Amino acid sequence: MTTGTPSAQGVSFSDLGLSPKLLGVLSSLKFTIPTPIQLKAIPIAAAGKDVIGIAQTGTGKTLAFALPLLQQASLTKKQGLIIVPTRELAAQVAEQFNAIGKSFGLRQALLIGGGAMYHQIEQIKKRPHVIIGTPGRIIDHLEGKRLNLSSVGILVLDEADRMLDMGFAPQIKQILKHVPKQRQTMLFSATMPSEIVKIAQEHMKMPVRVEVARAGTIAERVNQELFIIERNDKLRLLDKLLNEYYGTVLVFSRTKYGAKKICRSVRHMGHSVAEIHSNLSLPQRRRSLEGFKSGKFRVLIATDIAARGIDVTDIEVVINFDLPDSPDDYVHRVGRTGRAGKTGHAITFITPDQRSKIRMIERLVRQQLRISPLPELPAARAMPAHVPTSSGYQHRNRRVFRRPTRQQPRYAHKSSGRGARIHS
Q1: In the chain, where the domains are located
Q2: Residue 325 contacts residue 318 (beta carbons within 8 Å)
Q3: How many whole angstroms from its chain centre is CA 375?
Q4: Taking the domain 2-211, which CATH number applies?
Q5: 222-418: which CATH topology?
Q6: Which tens digit of pLDDT belongs to each residue from 64-122?
Q7: What's the pTM value of the predicted model, to 2 decimals?
Q8: Count of beta carbons in the 10 Å neighbourhood of residue 241
Q9: How far apart are CA 330 and CA 325, in angstroms?
Q10: Gap between the Cα atoms of 63 and 48, Å rounded
């Protein structure tokens, strides 16, 4: 494995070995200066070489593999296959490919759990140039004999460490059995655990490793602070903070049930709010995310399903209502703010018995996190008998969905498909 380290300054996309047509599209989209990962990865990948890209979230990794993939696909007339861990990331990647490739007549298939199978089959029948999907749903189509990957010439594994964390290693190995060995492979990851090294050794040809940030790196413009608070007072502190900050706020809950409860409380506080977690259907999750991006919802309550791959550049504050299960997830949550060179703020609530977990995070990020004095908290709000609990899909005076009875499941929808194996 070799390492590529170009470090030229003042470089534009025209210096990275891209075709004039791609450069024209980038110019029309106002992309002028490549990010560090794009600067390092694109020239190597555009030359047809295997690449391992190590970079934190929000660094422009999608464009770093999208541009070389489109260029190589046009030269080799081979399909591109992009495997990602979550539906949301798959949709985001598809959106970026569509923006770049529509002037080329690009056809793509988006294969994700929770999406309509009929539409996915129709996309496959049109022989797409690019296939984007989650591991479980790709396997569903392979096992149903609806998908043939023998024409794939460029393979991308995006957020590879996240896929391994989610237990997708067996599915990835199964998919790779259907992909020709003579191909170009690009692997992008925020960290480089031993499992990633093993994949590189077994499935890549002399990959060039490019790295732009060490694991645990948090953008310099992100101001981090902690509040030590009793569990029962967390909602009061959240109430206080939501009235102090006026921009968009992303609040992380550790569980789906917690996200639903926090969303209900925040709506009662008078804020426009949505929730996103795996107990919502795919259309509901899309409406939550799109509403948050557009400003329809100022606050988004999320589980770690949104910690990576969600491209929202103007989040003013990230609030960790609950600590994540691992220090790595703290880094990815905080990476949702302070993107694209902007200033961001990350606030974490910890209970007195969680100090040891904070020390683990501090070791990872290589800095001591500031503990702020607890402000005067507002009085606890009494919840009314009925507050709409969905993410903007019910009206205050008219229920759209019936309240579940004992014979009905607790949630109106449970996503199907192997591509949606997310438990929090």
Answers
A1: 2-211, 222-418
A2: no
A3: 33
A4: 3.40.50.300
A5: Rossmann fold (3.40.50)
A6: 999 999 999 888 899 999 999 988 889 889 999 999 988 888 899 999 988 889 999 99
A7: 0.71
A8: 18
A9: 9
A10: 16
